[in-house]
Design a protein that fits this description.
Blueprint lengths: L1 E4 L1 H8 L9 E6 L9 E3 L2 E8 L2 E5 L2 E5 L3 E5 L5 E6 L4 E7 L1 H5 L5 H4 L12 E3 L2 H20 L5 H20 L12 H17 L6 H7 L4 H12 L3 H17 L6 H7 L5 H12 L3 H10 L1
Helix pairs in contact: 4-5, 6-8, 6-9, 10-11
Length: about 290
């Protein structure tokens, strides 16, 4: 798995020429070349397709992105692209949080329950009207970006990207999860904050009390809201995130199980092996051997 995968890594792998920024990129032609390995991006990417399709796995969920599909993936999610139809057309934008942090108004605090949130689906099937609206907005923004003079390009690009995020969010509001109601707003946002904390700490802390303390709520209340909004327990979400990454690491040919155990916060091979076997019914070494054989 490629960790901290950057926009520059994307450009280099696909052999795309782009010298304006390492924190921002947009494209209106979808290259058929893609990374064969899993990767964890350090940037946001979202957009939609006009025709063709992309088969992509995001955090263990496989999606077929096709005509009228909106897709987003976020920093630290585990991504693998398995297929891009050679005649696929669409428009996507890639940007880091740092690229927009320079703006006076931080859109990440304003839209913490928007489509940028980890709580929002990575794949949305738009109705015809919303698809046309989003396509029109994206085209306007991209046309302006292509016409922006080089001297003021970065400042204008940041503001245009911010505008695209807001306009996209307005169109996608109707696709928010059904349980996102005013009376549920606080618990919904706490659920999102919990998931964000898991993204940052799953490899080093699996203690539920830690997450409840960080959110300034009780352990019981954390269990209640996570179960309500996800149908899962907090611990199962942490374990799923950890196991997803550990499995990818164990799928590599050159591994050291002792190093993996220490990297993910276990005291040694014995405790890691016990944990992994309890979760998967097989030992890490057995899983590794089977993955290599396949």
């Amino acid at each position: 798995m490629k960790l901290n995968y950057s926009i520059r890594d994307v450009l280099n792998f696909r052999k795309l020429e782009w010298g304006k920024s390492n924190d921002f990129f947009y494209l209106t032609d979808i290259p058929s070349t893609f990374e064969p390995d899993f990767f964890k991006p350090n940037y946001f990417s979202f957009g939609l397709l006009d025709k063709g399709f992309i088969k992509i796995e995001i955090d263990d969920n496989t999606h077929i992105i096709n005509n009228r599909s909106f897709m987003i993936y976020r920093p630290e999610q585990i991504i693998q692209i398995s297929q891009i139809h050679p005649k696929t057309k669409g428009a996507f934008i890639l940007f880091t949080k740092q690229f927009l942090d320079y703006l006076n108004e931080n859109i990440f605090s304003v839209t913490n329950h928007s489509f940028l949130s980890y709580q929002f689906d990575s794949h949305i099937e738009l109705d015809t009207s919303d698809y046309k609206k989003l396509k029109k907005v994206s085209k306007k923004i991209f046309d302006l970006l292509s016409e922006t003079p080089s001297g003021s390009w970065e400042y204008i690009a940041r503001n245009l990207t911010s505008a695209l995020v807001y306009e996209t969010n307005e169109i996608l509001k109707k696709y928010l999860p059904k349980d996102f109601k005013k009376k549920d707003c606080r618990s919904f946002l706490l659920t999102n904050d919990f998931k964000n904390l898991v993204e940052k700490h799953y490899y080093s802390n699996r203690n539920i009390r830690f997450y409840a303390s960080e959110l300034n709520i009780s352990v019981n209340y954390l269990h209640k809201i996570i179960k309500k909004h996800t149908g899962k327990t907090p611990l199962s979400i942490i374990n799923a995130k950890l196991l997803s990454e550990v499995k990818q690491v164990l799928s590599c040919s050159n591994i050291n199980i002792s190093e993996i155990a220490l990297k993910y916060g276990f005291s040694g091979v014995s405790s890691f092996s016990k944990y992994f076997k309890n979760q998967t019914s097989v030992s890490p070494s057995t899983y590794h051997k089977k993955s290599i054989q396949n």
